[in-house]
Amino acid sequence: MTGRNLLNAARVPAGIIAPESIAFDIDGVIADTMTLFLDIARDEFAINGLRYEDLHCYNLADCVDIDHAVIDSILAQILDGGYQAPLHPIPGAPNVLERLARRSGQLLLVTARPYLGPIGEFIRHLLPADVDGTEIVTTGSFDGKAEVLQKRRITHFVEDRLETCLTLNAVGITPVLFAQPWNRSPHPFIEVSSWGEIEELIRW
Q1: Where are the domains positioned within the chain?
Q2: Distance between CA atoms of residues 80 and 74, nearest Å
Q3: CB 41 within 8 A of CB 83
Q4: Which one of 2.60.40.1940, 3.10.150.10, 3.40.50.1000, 3.30.930.10 gives the CATH number of domain 19-31+89-201?
């Protein structure tokens, strides 16, 4: 994971976000999906030497020297399941999400995945069985997130795709950019590089 974009990212005081007013993307924020991509590429397609930091664009076909059909095959496996390598959470995500769910009684996750697939089971295993109120919404498109968040009166959304942050900001939702190699372009948004920093932003 790369460091903070110091010249462009906004740094704000701690405790500014009400627990019931924040929601989260899943891939690249909660789930370490890109590491899973690298593991599948290595284990099933013998693609070695590709590093996490080499994934410097969101559309992988634009920045990695892999046949597009192979990329599509790996992404389809990630959506549908059936892969052998484990999908891990981003460090710190489970504890903060559990604390947030217990504090507010709700937890909203919004993903551009077209259908729930195995990510629903992943989230279910991430949180204790007695944590209620978790909702996962699949939009099927990046632009579909804004409407979901507006309807639920969400004020802040943690996202790793910079273009989505721009879209959300335009409709009055404050994006919190989770720093990743593929979002290192200049931007004016709040930026975090760990779940500890997300925890600091919440008004507990």
Answers
A1: 19-31+89-201, 33-80
A2: 10
A3: no
A4: 3.40.50.1000
Contact 151, 170 (CB under 8 A): no
The predicted model gives 13-39 an average pLDDT of 95
Neighbours of 43 (CB within 10 A): 12
Token digits for 148?
């979901």
Task: Specify whether the CB–CB gap between 190 and 175 falls below 8 A.
Answer: yes
Residue type, 141: S
Q: Write out the two tokens for 98.
A: 């559990």
Class of residue 178 by CB neighbours under 10 A (exposed 0-12, middle 13-18, buried 19+): buried
pTM over 0.70: yes
- Residue 153 pLDDT > 70: yes
Q: Is the pLDDT of residue 9 over 90?
A: no
- pLDDT tens per residue, range 59-86: 999 999 999 999 999 999 999 998 999 9
Helix (H, G, I), strand (E, B) or coil at 20: helix
Give CA–CA dist 108/135, Å, rounded: 5
Sheet containing strand 156-159, edge to edge, reads 134-138, 107-111, 22-24, 156-159, 174-178, 190-192
Average pLDDT rounded to a whole number, residues 155-174: 98
User: β-strands 134-138, 107-111: how paired?
Assistant: parallel
Average pLDDT of the residues of the chain: 93
For 180, phi and psi rounded to 5 degrees?
-145, 160
